[in-house]
Specification:
Order of helices and strands: HEEHHHHH
Organism: Alsobacter sp. KACC 23698
InterPro entries: CN_hydtase_beta-like_N (IPR049054), CN_hydtase_beta_C (IPR042262), Elect_transpt_acc-like_dom_sf (IPR008990), Nitrile_Hydratase_acc_put (IPR023808)
Largest sheet: 2 strands, antiparallel
Strand content: under 5%
Pfam family, one: NHase_beta_N
Protein name: Nitrile hydratase accessory protein
Amino acid sequence: MSGGDPHAAALAAVPSLPCDAAGPVFREPWEAQAFAMAVALNQAGLFTWPEWAERLSAEIRRAQAGGDPDTGETYYRHWLAALEGLVVERGAAAAEALAARRDAWDRAARATPHGAPILLDNDPLRAARG
């Protein structure tokens, strides 16, 4: 990766990031989206990579203290928790707004037939508010 690649800074700042020779490895699409959001918010100046690495490390330590077995399967859940924490702390979004959006996605996912794309329009409460 070249020095101008925004992903290179993320990879350098977070050496525990699951990678292969081509770059970051994601098990599910939402993991790639969480990674991309962190890169975009860093580029927008919301946080520096050292701040990010510190916050992610703190999230991982907190989870391990709570019994997370650290098998790698929960890595991006910690990534997302760190991202949400920084977004709220820096005033980019309110915790209530993030929780409401998370709940809307959950309802939409539960209401979506298997194999169909999950869309916020599938949230039954959104349809009820019409």
